[in-house]
Amino acid sequence: MNENPRLVQPDADADPDAVTAVDTSAEEQESWGDFAKFVLKLVLVVVIFRSFIFSPFTIPSESMLPGLRNGDYLVAAKWPYGYSRLSLPFEAPLIPGRIFADMPERGDVVIFKHPVDGTDYVKRAIGLPGDTVTLRGGTIFLNGEPLKQRRGEYVDIPMSVNTGCRADGGIVVGESTCRYRQITETMPSGKSYATIDFGPRPKDDFGPIVVPQGKIFVMGDNRDNSLDSRFPPVAGGGVGLVDTDFLVARASMVLWSTDGSAEWLLPWTWFTAARWDRIGSDI
């Protein structure tokens, strides 16, 4: 019995070009398949990174002046306060409740969902559960003790397309600078940050209010131009006491900043509009 493998002779009449065409088609299909796998892996990495590590956010208003300005693009840490469906793209209901939940520290700049309309808001955490928050003459009293303040300072903010000058609180200096009164505030932990004061306003006096469990009291650094926990929750307006389940991230750094003068069809304006001195600033 002959156990040698049978040798198959090539067909003399076979078209070599047809064989080449088949091979080329198979290579193209394999190439497209590899590309599709690469794209899917890339998308998966991006989704994981944005959902659980860092994600970009924008500042659309002047409520956090002078530290954050309209036109700032932030990178925010997603892990400090835990994860929920709000951490995922399109708020996909894949995470039950809130996992690895943790509270902000007083003075953190927190990003959260508005309790009524669900838009992203950025404010500073002032009071935590159990804290008693009171305002008298613009000074915050936390659990009966006034926060340390340094007064008598001013801050000059360049005016631009997206940053004006409030006539009821600022003074135009030169041709394109707005000067505001600045108060540096210090938390009991020692964390300090700058705020803006327009002068006496009705909401300079508020409370006392005890922050209930599962809530935080937030305020904008631009104290007289911020709809925050001093105002009842209304779509597009105040937020009231913010439920910790609405926390999304902690603002970490200014990734990019623009003065609003850029035009999409004029690429060079993307660079001339950049506020280069703000890029990479810590929060």
The largest pleated sheet is described as: 7 strands, antiparallel
Number of helices: 2
Major β-sheet strand ordering: 1-2-15-3-4-13-14
What number is the mean pLDDT? 89
Sheet-strand content, in percent, reads 25-35%
**How would you classify the quaternary structure?**
single chain
In short:
The chain is an alpha+beta fold.
Question: What tags apply to this protein structure?
Answer:
283 residues; alpha+beta; seven-stranded antiparallel beta sheet; four-stranded antiparallel beta sheet; 2 helices; globular; disordered N terminus
Verbal overview:
The protein is α+β, with helices and mostly antiparallel strands and 283 residues long. 14% of the residues lie in helices and 31% in strands. A 7-stranded antiparallel sheet has the order 1-2-15-3-4-13-14. The chain has a 4-stranded antiparallel sheet with strand order 7-6-5-12, with no helix packed on it. Strand 10 and strand 11 (192-197) form a beta hairpin. The chain is globular. The N and C termini lie far apart (84 Å).
